[in-house]
Q: What sequence folds into this?
């Protein structure tokens, strides 16, 4: 068994790495590009953190592993519930290696909370609710890490300070988080035996989310004065990663194949937005309650409550200490976000609604009989005809200024996902041409055009200015890897089987991905047998169909963090 080390750089993109490497600002990345193989790594659709990392480490599409996002439809109802590793079906890469007798180190990989037993050590990632949670395996490792790094960091508070517009503190949080995660990973690599190790550094994604507008002159919110203060933040974060990769290469055992990967790319947010429920309403497929004067009055009250909730939240974000915010939100059963979601769904007339969206993911759900609580669309011909209608109509979603089509492609669910949990995915998925952020939830149910160009003031209310793109990065370096080779067509599910191949291990038959043989020198190409038999490796998580492993308070904390990071 040969060694493999995976370094995850959340949200890293060649759009930044290659120019900076060519100009000498990222010398270690330049070395990896020159001496190893590399290529764009197409992520899952939509390009979201939770399903992307889960697909990477399982080699399976989201329809198999079930982690379709940080949350999923709570069928048959119209609300959503949080997910974490307890909802994952099937083994991860480290389970497969551990079952083969290999020792593993897993550190800060998203969607690994609660930690499960492995043949080695594991530190869970950003779905961990807080420092008081049991986020390591074995449990005593938590105290060891705190002694080594001072105080471990689950997720840097860059999101918290960014939404308060305290960008100096947000930048400091990003750089500190990068240092803590790397120090923890290096300690584990030096302290414990390993055949497979994986460490994810998340600051590259946070920097893109919150600092893109300061770097990019083409961003609608670009300001030269602020650019002078914060425009080098993303570069500084990448340079920190570059320096850490250099230190890692110096200490890497000679028999190790290094993988540097990201779960998606990043780019500027768009001023063009699509309100999918407004569009579905325009198409005659979604209806809101009208009815009597009393019902209209109730709707007005609900809208006023929604506005009040948002105003209170904005005020809390700006002036109230975060710990006190959580205490205030705890007074509301179910949390403020879930109250808001319930108020919006309560306004939909399900008896007349054929299709609806949660609006921020490019997803369209059919209100299907037998699946949805108040479904009215019959399975079979009516269902398929309605999907055809939606897909055809999506081509007419265009920029009102230029006439440019906003949708790259519309997919039926089965074109993207297959497996026992594909029912958690929407019936139609729309892929935007520029960024996932183009889909946005309306702040009001009042009449709104489906496609809207945001003003600068409207854009400035958002906390984030950079969002996910489809192409992440893949770089491979080490024994058997071709130097200077560009890899074409790599997809997220290909990483796990390629890692197993590099280690000399067979690829399990349940994995959807393919070995990226083009990255290996001819002398290294061998035929490894495909493993057959059981779909699940020992030690893998069994899916928790009942819900997540979060308490109510933990769920509230995780939801607020995900909102701050731009995922809700």
A:
């Amino acid at each position: 068994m040969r060694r493999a080390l995976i370094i995850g750089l959340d949200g890293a993109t060649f759009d930044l790495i290659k120019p900076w490497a060519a100009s000498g600002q990222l010398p270690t990345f330049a070395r990896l590009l020159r001496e190893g193989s590399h290529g764009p790594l197409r992520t899952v659709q939509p390009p979201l953190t939770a399903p992307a990392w889960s697909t990477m480490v399982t080699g399976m599409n989201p329809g198999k592993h079930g982690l379709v996002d940080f949350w999923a439809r709570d069928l048959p109802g119209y609300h959503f519930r949080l997910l974490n590793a307890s909802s994952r079906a099937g083994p991860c890469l480290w389970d497969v290696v551990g079952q083969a007798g290999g020792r593993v180190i897993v550190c800060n990989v998203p969607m690994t909370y609660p930690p499960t037993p492995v043949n080695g050590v594991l530190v869970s990632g950003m779905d961990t609710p807080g420092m008081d949670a049991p986020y390591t395996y074995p449990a005593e490792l938590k105290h060891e890490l705190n002694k080594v790094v001072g105080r471990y960091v689950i997720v840097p508070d860059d999101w918290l300070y960014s939404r308060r517009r305290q960008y100096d503190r947000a930048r400091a949080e990003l750089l500190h988080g990068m240092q803590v995660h790397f120090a923890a990973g290096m300690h584990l690599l030096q302290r414990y035996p390993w055949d497979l190790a994986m460490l994810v550094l998340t600051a590259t994604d946070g920097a893109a989310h919150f600092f893109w507008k300061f770097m990019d002159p083409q961003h609608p919110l670009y300001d030269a004065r602020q650019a002078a203060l914060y425009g080098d933040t993303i570069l500084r974060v990448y340079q920190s990663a570059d320096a850490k990769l250099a230190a890692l290469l110096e200490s890497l055992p000679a028999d190790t194949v290094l993988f540097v990967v990201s779960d998606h790319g990043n780019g500027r947010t768009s001023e063009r937005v699509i309100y999918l429920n407004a569009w579905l309403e325009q198409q005659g497929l979604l209806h809101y309650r009208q009815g009597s004067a009393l019902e209209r009055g109730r709707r007005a009250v609900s809208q006023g409550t929604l506005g009040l909730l948002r105003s209170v939240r904005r005020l809390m974000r700006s002036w109230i200490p975060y710990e006190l915010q959580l205490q205030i939100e705890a007074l509301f059963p179910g949390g403020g976000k879930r109250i808001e979601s319930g108020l919006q769904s309560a306004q939909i007339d399900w008896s007349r609604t054929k299709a609806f969206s949660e609006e921020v993911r490019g997803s369209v759900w059919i209100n299907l009989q037998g699946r949805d609580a108040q479904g009215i669309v019959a399975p079979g011909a009516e269902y398929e005809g309605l999907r055809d209608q939606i897909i055809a109509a999506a081509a007419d979603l265009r920029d009102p200024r230029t006439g440019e089509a906003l949708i790259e492609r519309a997919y039926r669910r089965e074109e993207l996902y297959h497996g026992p949990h594909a029912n958690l995915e929407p019936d139609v998925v729309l892929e935007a041409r520029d960024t996932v952020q183009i889909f946005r939830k309306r702040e009001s149910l009042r009449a709104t055009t489906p496609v809207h160009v945001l003003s600068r003031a409207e854009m400035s209310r958002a906390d984030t200015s950079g969002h996910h793109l489809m192409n992440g990065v893949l770089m491979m370096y080490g024994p058997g890897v071709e130097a200077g080779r560009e890899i074409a067509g790599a997809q997220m599910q290909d990483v796990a089987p390629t890692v197993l191949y590099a280690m000399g291990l067979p690829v399990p038959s349940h994995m959807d991905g393919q070995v990226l043989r083009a990255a290996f020198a001819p002398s290294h190409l061998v035929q490894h047998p495909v493993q057959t038999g059981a779909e699940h490796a020992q030690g893998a998580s069994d899916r928790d169909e009942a819900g997540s492993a979060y308490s109510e308070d933990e769920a509230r904390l995780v939801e607020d963090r995900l909102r701050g990071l731009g995922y809700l």
User: Anything to note?
Assistant: DSSP finds 20 helices and 22 strands in the chain.
